[in-house]
From TrEMBL:
It comes from the Bacteria. Keywords: Signal. This is YceI family protein. The keyword NADP does not apply. The keyword Signal applies. Residues 19-174 form the Lipid/polyisoprenoid-binding YceI-like domain. Pfam families: YceI (PF04264). It comes from Pedobacter roseus. Residues 1-18 form the signal peptide. Gene3D superfamilies: Lipid/polyisoprenoid-binding, YceI-like.
Amino acid sequence: MKTLITALIFLLTSMLPADKTKSTSRWVVSGNSMLTVNGRTNINRFSCAIVRYPKSDTILISKDKTDHIMLSGTLNLEVKDFDCSNTMMTKQLLNTLQQSKFPTLKIKFLSLKEIPSVGQRNFVKGDVEITLSGILKRFEICYEVNVKQGLMELTGQQAINFSDFNLIPPKKVGRLIQAKNQLVVVFFLKMEKVG
C-alpha cells in the first residue's frame, strides 16, 4: 500500500507544470541613462532630452524552455524633465505632450529576439510599448547592445509621429515655426547586473 501511495504521488507531481524559466538576469538602470527626441521644423532641427534618469528601475531578461526571450520592465520618465535648450521650445513641447494631464512617458520592454553575447557589440530586435499622453503604441526596435563584466549598454531608436499619439506638433512664435510630424526617439540605457 505504501509503495502504491508513493507511486501515485510521484505520478501526480510529474504531471504538474514545471517552472519553464531557465534563467533570469536582473539589471538596474543607471542614472547616466538618457532619452532624446529629435525632430525638425520648417526652418531647422531640434533636439530635446532627459539627460539623467533619477530612478533605479530594474529590467529583467529571462529565457524559457521554448527559447522565448522576455525583456521586462518599465521606464517611467517625467515629461517635465525634457529640456530642448530653448525655453520657448521646451514650453511648447511640454504643452504639446499635455504634461500637466499626462506627466509620465512610459517605455515598457516586452521581448528580445535573442540574448546578447557577452564581450561584443550585438544588434538585436525587440518589442516595446510606448505610452505618451495617455496613448499606448507598440513598436519593434533594433537595439545596439554591449555587455561586459556585469554592465550593459542598450541603445535604441524609433521614429514616431505626433499624430500616432493624437498630438499636434508644437508651434513657436505664432505659426511662423512649425514642427514636423515625425520625431526620432533615442534612448541610451546603462545598466548594472544584480544578484
